[in-house]
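Lab notebook, bench 4. Still working through the backlog of constructs that have no structural model yet. Next entry is a single chain of 111 residues. Request: give me the structure tokens for it.
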Amino acid sequence: MAQRLGRALVLLATVALTAAAAQDLPVFQIVMKDGRFSPERLEVPAGKRLKLVLKNEGRGPAEFENLSMRVEKVLAPGVTSFVVLHGLKPGEYRFVDEFRPDGGSLTLVAK
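Model written out:
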């Protein structure tokens, strides 16, 4: 019984710490619509984890992608989702909608 209680307390502490860490993440909103991004350029803090909230307002599916970073997220029309990026080095990172490669792009500028 004591072991179960101990495990439960450890689990609760882990959940609480995870939730607190998630609240500390800077959050940035990105809208995708038919191959276009809004904003097209976004400054983010370098060296910190951050959360990108993605919303597909287009008529078809969208794929938020950066191959070199191995980041991709497919969103159906009207869907909102997110990705978490870990400690970007200072520089520029380009994301595209893989379903519309001739469309626009998003440039994240880590400073």
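Notes after review: The radius of gyration is 17 Å. The mean pLDDT is 87. Flag for follow-up if needed.
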